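I'll show a typical protein example:
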Amino acid sequence: MIFSVKASCLLLYAAFFMASAASTNPPSTLGVYKVIEPLSTDANIRMAVQIEGDRQVYSIPPSTIDSILHVGSAPTQKKYRYLKIHNNGTVVDRESFQRAPNAVSNNDFYGRQQTFSSQQSMIPSVFPDGKTYYRLDTSIAHPINEIPTIHVQAPHGDLESLHDNYLDPIAINVNMSHIRQFSNVKFQLGGQTSRLFDKFSYNFHFSKHDDSSLGGYRRFKLRSCTTDPSFIREKLYYDILDSSSLPASKASYVRLFVNKKPMGLYLFIDNYKSPFVDNLLNGGNNEKHGILYQGSMPENPMAPGILGRGANLEYAGSNIEDYFYKDTSAYKLSEDGSKKQKGFEPLVKLIKFIHDPQPDEDEKEGVLNQGETPLERAWNKRIDIDVFLKNMAFEVLMGHVDGYLGQAHNYFLYREPGTKKFLWMTADLDQTMGSSMIPVRDARSISLNDQRGHIDRFDLMNKHHNRPILKQVLSVPAFNQRFDTILKTVHQNLFTNPALFKHIDFLTALIKEDVAWDSNIRHTHAQAVSHNATSAKKKKDQIQEKILQLPLGHDFLSRIGNINFMSAIEGPIRNHPSLMPLKEWLNETKEALHNYVNSV
């Protein structure tokens, strides 16, 4: 169910504040100081800045646009710290550290030393010869080396109703500022499973009617990272996909406040809905776009009829109705295409081809590329095989247990308007790299004939009898060989140099203070559930259905909030088989992949 919330959003750029300060004509020795702090309900408390060697305290008033941001002028070129002062001059609180001279106009965050990193860690290109997608610039929505702040404001009663009834569709009006233009935005609670935990996830998108966006991007997810105490797994996976030139979301970090209350650190991720695909594949041009399908429902033997298969792309018939149970399908039409490219018919035709991949007459008789067979041409005409195989390789190597191979969902298929070729895009990467509700495979159970078994630690590829596209693609010798080449390339360019682990260290330093802050202010649903019996029962039923019925479901729930940040990254983690330290997972992957590529 969707929690729709209309909102107004403000993006406050550093340049905007520089211009505002300049309008007051301050002396050239003065600079602009900007700090985020919600303060208390006491109107007598205000923010100030103190400069090293200067006994004067300089007041920093709240911004007229958002009250948690304070903006003022003071001398520059020396170290400084922020203070909270009473109107009578008493210092209520002060930062315990001094900041470097205010040489650049970033938004500081009170009490946080790490607000901006001068370094910009990037993972080297994994597939240097891969296809380049003409993506619209993402630097505004996803800055690499800073953590922006989002502030949502709404009537208290509306927010209370939204959160108390978190399993029901409720819409409220809010104002939102992203401390970075004014616009209308829809704000909503996130995915179904995430609503069962102590910290909500959210979605929002800008209204297309007022031409506002974050650098042209209008739809985003705010992921709570509740189930990953490292806060890094999903971010790292998206960074790897980006460095692999694969079509996918980008991700960055934000801090979230609601009515001045801190909600914590969130992962900020592009939503695949419009105009994302146009921005990703066509530089923001939306004049002609294809159809976007979502594999949205997981495999579930308890689900009725065809829904039990999930979105596994298994053939059920040649009619669109064959893929629906009553009015519900495991496949969602996320975006219709322009002109005549509409509806489910192209997807059903693809599923029919997957079931019985036969070249048509033109593919049999046409001039083939060197070494290409008619069957290979038929596949390449319908789907970008290289992109598909790369995504499957990462699902295996990163242990994406909640993806297509693991649960037959969490992927998108985009049908390009020109070539009519399908493009595979993976999504929802939180249960990866050793975070799982199913146990890691016992190495002793791996058959000697299963050469890929040691890199496939959740036995994902052996589910291919229920994942027909993987089974059929790998049955083509050239594609099976290409899969091995992809694995070798990933090993060579991602695991034989220290860049991946250096990137983890960069992210660790960037968010470490904010993760500690998040753990101190974590909000729970306890109060809401205590007086809402209907929501409490729905929550209990969904936890049983979606979590506790899985082998490690109980452990998965019990460890949430009980494993610290550095242990989640470096280890050790004891007595929790549902979570492996991030670096341990990657080191074991590195070793297994090394052994595999040297054996084939």
Summary: Confidence is low (pLDDT under 50) at residues 1-28, 524-530.
